[in-house]
Amino acid sequence: MTAQNPPDQLVALGRAIARPPVVAGVAQHSPMAGLERRTVGFVDVLAQSIGAVAPAAGTATVPALIAAQAGSGLLVAVAAAWLLAICVAATLNQFALRIAAPGSLYTFTSKGLGSGPGFAAASGLLVGYGFIAMFGVVGAAYFLQSFVGVLAGPTAAAPWVTAVLLVGVGAVCFGVLRRGIRLSARVTLVIELTSLVVILALLAIVLSRLDAAQLAAPFTHPLPSIGGLVAGTAVALTAFVGFESAASLGREAARPFLTVPRTIRWTVLGVGAVYLLSAYTQLAGAGAFGIGFDGGQAVARLASDTDVAAVGTVLDLGLAASFTACAIASLTALARAVFSLGREGVLPRAMSRIEPLRKTPYRALALVVPVTVAVPLVLHAIGWSPWQSLEFLIVVSAAGYITAYVLATAALPAFLRRIGESSRRTDLVAGVAAVGLAGVLITYLVVMVPGEPVAVAVVGGLATLAALAYVYVRRTRSRGLARVGLFDHTTSSDLLGGS
Amino acid sequence: MSQAGRDPGLTGRQPGAVHGALSVLEEVARVGPGVTAQQISAALGLPRATTYRLLNLLVQDEYLVRLPDLAGFALGRKVALLAGLAVQATPEGVHDILLEVRRRVRGGVHLASYREGVLELVDVDPDFPLSDERRLLSDLTSSALGRLLLAERRGAPVPYVAVPNGPMPGHGCFAAAIRDPHGALVAGLALALPTQRLGDPEALLELTAADRPRLATALC
């Protein structure tokens, strides 16, 4: 019997429907019980990933950061990062097709490589989501302040305003997150799409004012050195991180094995296209108008130079919203990772408490949101400018994220072999992704030493802290460590004839 | 078997995928919970990549579920929607014979198969729905059709079983064995009747005496 010769009578199937078989080893409850199950629709899952990537904020700020490394190789760097992100997405999707887990990448890692690497991936994920959430809070406050400045004049530039805005953004995030996943996802999507439309319109305006020679200019630049390109690729990759965060809604998503992989695929493809267009426009526009990439407001300045200053002001508001969305989405994923670690017993069990009515992990939120506001406040207090903070936060976050990516992609071949579903193609793609990412991570940290020595030192410090935490957890919470890898498995109600 | 059957490029969008998906579901049902992707691929002679893709599609649509070990598969809740597809087509001729019997008998006339020693309903009288089909299939002692099979399993075959008091008050059922030429039990013809008409089972046996050999032939 083959696919071309179907059974004309589904005898066994008919019998199974009439008398569903007893299935051993399927429990009535999932270890992730408490969070809503299988209710969040595709659009909301998509919103989670798009929000975490925050393409609007990324489009406006990251090309400047990439150009600092890759110079005129900006386009090549963005394209290379896009390709790498596609490989990572394809690899992570092999997990997402099979496992629904609030712990997302660290749970995946533990399924292939065991609890030690799983713990390392969890540390990377917490740092990645945590610092990107802080990045979102700082960015939102920064652009809000810039917007308020236009309305209220120089008073708005006072340091206390920054502090108030930081706390305010944090409070908004907490309120939205506590209300439940659907509200936060919807808010995120609306914000993100609106700001993206504004930015795309702006890019179109800029492009429409360029002549043919200026439009061709970005392709005639000589390529920079390989080192610069790799560094640029590494920075460009940071603009993609977050696309995988839909996986943290594994339990909450309706039809998770369909919606989560689809979200991850679409997000990477769509976001990459927008980045390429944006990088190209900024390169062509900057050449034409003689503007350098600095201060992270290249898009706004391009707008001002094309006599659409008003749009630039609206853009501030849009970017503030986009950064807020980024914070909300990152906190969503972060809270679920903390929740999952609590359920396993790696973190205190209290972290896995769920608010019964809203079904949100409120204890985890009550831990992570204050920390996310406190760190930016400290940076502000020691006199760092918002832009300085943003650059610092993104470096630490990227190191955390990419560490988790490397571990999860490296875990895939072992996982597929264990369940007897390995193939040469998935092994190859996972290998390319893991090796590429490891190279990017190392290059990135090395390249960042001169510009961001504090960030690289903090990454080293956090890695040491994670290693110490591992030793501590192994001593005092070994049972929790042994439980790493819990996920939202099939329950008896999912089975034919189940209840 | 066309070449396409071995083509690893088969995607979920191609028409062959529907056949493949049904074959995979049937195989999971046949082998039972816990069957792995490798076993399914080997049993169906499907390329492994195609098997994985079909399995993942069926899991996405919740016709299949992965067991907690992540390697084994079981039928999902949604398979119940395929009940119409999976009901065995009644063999040619059987339905006509049953129509004749139903015209003659003032009561419910149901046909069950005992193929492979399992009770399966082949044709239920549309005018007299079963009171509890689930119980009839799961508890063999609850019905005349089930007791007929139980007697056979115990090695003490009987020509008929009468149950004067069924789940519906004042009603019961009678089931007569249908045997192939070698005497093996292949099916059961059940009559659902008011209790007072079940007093003379020999007469009921006689009532369908001519029909049962014809049904045996039509069923084989």
UniProtKB/TrEMBL annotation, chain B:
Name of the featured protein: HTH iclR-type domain-containing protein
Sequence ranges assigned to domain HTH iclR-type in this UniProt record: 15-77
Name of a matching Pfam family: HTH_IclR
InterPro entries: HTH_MetabolicPath_Reg, Tscrpt_reg_IclR_N, WH-like_DNA-bd_sf, WH_DNA-bd_sf
PROSITE patterns referenced in this protein's UniProt entry, alphabetically: HTH_ICLR
Organism: Gryllotalpicola koreensis
Phylogenetic classification of the source organism: Bacteria, Bacillati, Actinomycetota, Actinomycetes, Micrococcales
Highest taxon in the source lineage: Bacteria
